[in-house]
Amino acid sequence: MSNATLEKETATAEPVEQAERTYTVVPAVDIIERPDQVIVLADLPGAEENSVEVQLENEQLTIGARASLQPPSGMEALYHGFDACEYRRVFALTDKIDREHISAALKHGVLRVTLPKLSAKQTRRTQIKIEKE
Known about the structure:
Number of helices: 1
Radius of gyration: 23 Å
């Protein structure tokens, strides 16, 4: 195909709806430590609550979400300031976190993950018997 043909076809082509491109973004976070808990605040602009996942597997806490270009129902977007993306960030947890009571909430594009600390009485301690050879 020659350049003249390409220019002509491009100039006369009908507008084509651009497919949504996605890429992975490491969200910015603030980590706040208090005597009884650790709070992780993750910026997830454009993420819908139903797309957010907070998982604990082994000793890792994973935050994930999807942001799309779709405006909220009943609204029409005039301008898109960012592309659709997948958010993902992984944190290693210490044994001082109470894994049974972790909670999360999304509000205005900010995910708040609350990691309660175990009390000194609850801290997991395993006595290891040393055998003589």
